[in-house]
Amino acid sequence: MSLFRRVWMGTVASILGVALTASVPTAPASARATPSCKGLAESLLSRMTLEEKAGQMVMAVTQDAPGGMPDENTRKILQDYHVGSVIIYNKPDPAFMAEYNNRLQKWASHTRLGIPLLISADLEFGAFQNIRRGTTAFPRQMGIGATHSVKDAEEAARLTAREARAMGFHWNFSPVADVNTNSENPVIGVRSFGENPQQAARLTAAQVRAYQKEKVIASAKHFPGHGDTDVDSHLGLPTVGYDRETLEKVHLPPFQAAIDAGVDSIMTAHVVVEAIDPELPATLSHKVLTGLLRNEMGYDGIIITDAMTMDAIDENWGTREATAMAVQAGADVIMSTGSFEDHVETISAILDGVRTGAISEKRVDASVRRVLQAKCEYGLFADRYVNPKRAERVNGQPSHRKKADEIARRATTLVKNEGVLPFRRNENQTTLVAGVIQVPEAVEAVQAIGGGEVIGWQARTYDPTAEEIQEAVRLAEQADRILVATYSQSKLPPGQSELVRALQKTGKPVVALSLGLPYDLADYPEVDAYLASYALDRWQTPNPTALRAAVEVIFGKQPGGRLPVSIGDLYPYGHGLRYD
User: Fold this and answer.
1) Are the beta carbons of 157 and 165 closer than 8 angstroms?
2) Are 459 and 499 in contact (CB under 8 A)?
3) Contact (CB, 8 A) for 120 and 165
4) Which run of H or E residues covers position 325?
5) DSSP letters of 455-522?
6) What is the pLDDT of residues 1-47, one digit of tens each?
7) Could you tell me which residues come within 8 angstroms of residue 26 by beta carbon, excluding any fewer than 6 positions away?
8) DSSP secondary structure string, 198-254?
9) Distance between CA atoms of 142 and 190, rounded to whole angstroms?
10) What is the torsional sign of CA 261, 267, 270, 272?
11) 3-state SS assignment for residue 285
């Protein structure tokens, strides 16, 4: 297409867009698909080419040029291949993020029909997850679960959505609706609300309503449940062998609650659920996506796949075959997080499927209709751009951070205390902070909150050697009290439990703080005191709010958390201590 023709057609699309959007609502309706949005979707659908339809069914990850703005391949995938949604990772600050998203929307506006983009991100614990400066970090979902508070779940989602929308995001891949019943789950863990299906259902529904009230699409994930796996689907293909009754009683209730709350998208799990389909992962299974989710559970919103470059899918089926299978199974949007070539191959797989008859155009139309209606319901046709200065003002407000701090203290769970907590503040005492990750951050927090001299020691790996443990013990001789932070993604590495035991043998007061999964205490039950912060997931993305709250509790703030999971036979679900 010549440059002249592209500009001319873009101008026509802009004029057409004004006529189409004059009466389009700017906020999501309480009921899916208002009449005006249905009409807009049908009008656009009737004029779209097959290539434009296929593009609307693909979500591509953006790539950046030097300087950080989206690159030429990103422009091509939007303008030449008609991709209808994008996912974004790791940008510096709110103003930059707003400018970045505006650039994407401008490119989308200069296409034949000028259809706006849905812009998405993983913001499970706040905008901070992917925009680290000037935003707010809330506790992770297991921390929210430890508050046992629907109000806290709503507030965290509401403020996250407000910050996200100000930067130009319309779609958050949250809440995680998985019920974490496997203590060695290597990928869900603290991302889940916990092990109780009823509580997970209540908190999931609360967050769905809060996100969508603030005009951000919620996405309950990972259907029909990733909480009982012992394989990370980024690295392999998990299979769960529980029966249909367990599926219905334990893993489906949060998803049904999300559907009942009006959730507008659900993300699939790259997990084989043998009770429904023993052959295929949910993402590729017609029995799961159409049979169970659509027909049995009554869901009619957008089904989006998890990233198709994850090894669970890519290593077993490859991009082209998996894309066609997912669409045939009932997926509406295929998440492509690989290279530019992967995006092109994903679109090509949909086109070839229709041209060969493997995928009906009616199946494609149903998906594109859902996508277009969502774009209309969430106000994108009325106003696709955001103000960078407003993004700066809205994000990271003192009131947002204050609320996050309050929720984080209510989440921090004091599990055990043999009379050593709280530590006294501002006394002439030396604290050793030892651990395997984020020790400098913990030292800074202890210095700021507790005062006194602080010594920091961090192992070189997550599994300290005997020599390293001896080094930590020698440093403990200089300290009056010890804070040792452990971190597990699945099983706790044995060197960490040995570290805790060795420090305990010094006779100094020892407090252990779990930074990741709360189950660590089962490996060193003799420690004097133990707190769970639920701060770090398997990617170790920092959560300064949760870490700071835990240190505040160590130095006297009242802990509010109660376990959202059981710790073996030692401490039951709902257990939690207070200082009074």
Assistant:
1) no
2) yes
3) no
4) helix 318-329
5) EEEE-SSSS--HHHHHHHHHHHTT-SEEEEEE--SSSPPHHHHHHHHHHHTT-S-EEEEESS-GGGGG
6) 232 222 323 333 333 333 333 334 444 433 356 779 999 999 999 99
7) 379, 382, 383
8) HHHHHHHHHHHHHHHHTT-EEEEEEET--TT-SS-TTTS--EE---HHHIIIIISHH
9) 5
10) positive
11) coil
Helix (H, G, I), strand (E, B), or coil: what is residue 577?
A: strand
Q: What amino acid is encoded at 216 in this protein? A: V
Sheet-wide strand order for 118-121: 302-304, 265-268, 217-223, 171-172, 118-121, 85-87, 58-61, 334-336
Q: What φ, ψ does residue 478 adopt, rounded to 5°?
A: -85, -5
> Which structure tokens are listed for 62?
């953006």
The single residue listed with the structure tokens 């998208």 is 265
DSSP annotation string for 339-402: -HHHHHHHHHHHHHHHHHTSS-HHHHHHHHHHHHHHHHHTTTTT-----HHHHHHHTT-HHHHH
Give the chain's count of helices (H) and strands (E). 21, 16
Question: Tens digits of per-residue pLDDT, 393-442?
Answer: 999 999 999 999 999 999 999 999 999 999 999 878 999 999 999 999 99
CA 13 to chain centre: 35
